[in-house]
Amino acid sequence: MPGPTEVRPEILDALRRPVIFHRSPQMEELMRRATTRLGKVFGTQRPVHVITGSGTGAMELVIRGGTMRRLLAVVNGDFGERFARMAEACGRSVVRLTCEPGSVVPLDQVRDALRKGGFDAVLATHNETATGAIADMAGIGAVVREQGDCLLLIDAVSSAGGAPIALDAWGADAVVSASQKALALPPGLAFAAVSDRLVGRAKTLENRGVYLDVLRYEEFTAKAQSPSTPAVSLLFALDRQLADIEVETLDARFARHVAMRDACVAWVERAEAAALGVSLVARPENRSPTVTCIRTKERVAVLQRMREQGYELGGGQAPLTHTSFRIGHMGDHTVAGVEAMLDVLERVLRTL
Ligand code: PMP
User: Fold this and answer.
1) pLDDT, tens digit, for every residue of 254-267?
2) Which single residue of 141, 179, 196, 201 could bond 170 by disulfide (Cβ 3.0 to 4.6 Å)?
3) Is the CB of residue 130 less than 8 Å from the CB of residue 104?
4) Closest ligand 1 atom number to CA of residue 129
């Protein structure tokens, strides 16, 4: 599944620890450890905010705290479109740049749109989960930084923990994510890494709300606390997973994700050559290390028969709802596990 992904038993065990007081020294110690380790995942020297909620919550937090009136949304697929709509729901006016499913909007188009001026922020999706296309955030960061005080807000919900993220080096102002994707935790935590520039802007904005006010998070994360009662049990799971990721190392984790992607790509190319009626949606230069979207006319039967074999795969998303399915090779999955699934998938396709 392209999220929520499978969670290892060791992580589920961490959820069984007795709940502790969220203002206790033990919890502050845990939060301090988590903040340091999350800084490496998000590529920032600044503290990363941990929010009880799903990724959507962190997206709304950075819209409320980091945008003013008129935004440019780089929309590579359904999730990019949701980010744009969320900003409109918060009262911002949004201009969209769009592309064909499987492609990403070219940087020149972003530069041209920004030069026409009048945008106070850009919304971008690092890894478009709907199509399996990953975009160049360093490139967008450089283009946005040409524009003075325009901020760059990035949705990295399906990439953080599975692909390199570099808030500081990209020159980005927010990178948000969630627990249930490449970090392979249960759903329920969202993460927001933000820049000094965004914090400065938030101080000038009204209507930031309460629960998703980035300035409250700034105040409490600095003290290794949460503004309100956090999901203590999920924080135990996070603590365990971040320790395990440190042992695996981020570089090895990213290499494992690339290898899982390569296994899927090689399989689809073989299956396509064998006339099994499948093809890749993402273009060769944009293929995501965490999710592969595959075109087929047999979507319903594929999903149903794979389920009968014990495998849950992702359905298609607009506009490929009826013509594709998705493999989520993210989190703690392995190349061997992905290959075993692909063998079953091949048998299923042959029966169709
Ligand atoms: N953005 C992307 C790229 C996603 O993949 C998802 C979840 N599939 C979301 C946003 C929404 O995240 P959540 O469901 O955690 O709110």
Assistant:
1) 999 999 999 999 99
2) 141
3) no
4) 5
